[in-house]
Amino acid sequence: MTGPAVILLGPMGAGKTSVGRELAARLDLPFEDLDALIVGAAGRSIPDLFATDGEDGFRALEASVLESALTASSGVLALGGGAVMHPDSRQRLRGGPIVLLEIDEPVAAERLGRGHGRPMLGGGEDPMPRWRELAAERGPVYRDLARWRVDAGHGTAAAVARAITDMM
Ligand code: S3P
């Protein structure tokens, strides 16, 4: 079979990158992070991509980098929180080995602080109203795509990774 062995999905602050690293180490597989692949492909940071190309430009690039990653990667792939919002990406992800990392709002608030480096959170004092809106809009999409769901709000990234391997 081609494509990633595990794909991690979930809102900003869920710990997709840190859990993904732990999970890849545990499974002895390579780890790939979609945001890092995008930055590598564009040679620019995510805030810079949003500033110059807007969200639509970012999503188009994200969808094309994801398409390549779904073919090229055979390890653990962590997505960005909005990667499921492009219809093409949603279709490509459907049926994949997808784990949803679930967190609640207080955990997100603690982890995200002011939301620095995450343009979707608006750059203001309090990123949580926007986080809440995005969580409400995307939650149903996440749950629809996920084959497994795990509580990613408690314990270390290693413990969450262990819970995932126990579940799969
Ligand atoms: C985004 C989430 C980010 C990154 C970009 C947009 C989103 O990834 O892809 O800032 O729309 O939720 P993380 O979920 O890893 O923070």
TrEMBL record:
Q: In which pathway does it act?
A: Metabolic intermediate biosynthesis; chorismate biosynthesis; chorismate from D-erythrose 4-phosphate and phosphoenolpyruvate: step 5/7
Positions with a binding annotation for substrate: D35, R59, G81, R138
Supply the EC number(s).
2.7.1.71
Q: Major location, coarse class?
A: cytoplasm
- The keyword S-adenosyl-L-methionine is assigned to this record: no
In which residues is ATP bound? G13, A14, G15, K16, T17, S18, R118
Q: How is the cofactor bound?
A: Binds 1 Mg(2+) ion per subunit.
Q: What class of enzyme is it?
A: transferase
**InterPro entries hit by this protein:** P-loop_NTPase, Shikimate/glucono_kinase, Shikimate_kinase/TSH1, Shikimate_kinase_CS
Give the family from UniProt. Belongs to the shikimate kinase family.
- Function noted in UniProt: Catalyzes the specific phosphorylation of the 3-hydroxyl group of shikimic acid using ATP as a cosubstrate.
- Name of the molecule in the record: Shikimate kinase
Name the species this protein comes from.
Answer: Brachybacterium sacelli
Q: Which taxonomic lineage does the organism of this UniProt entry have?
A: Bacteria, Bacillati, Actinomycetota, Actinomycetes, Micrococcales
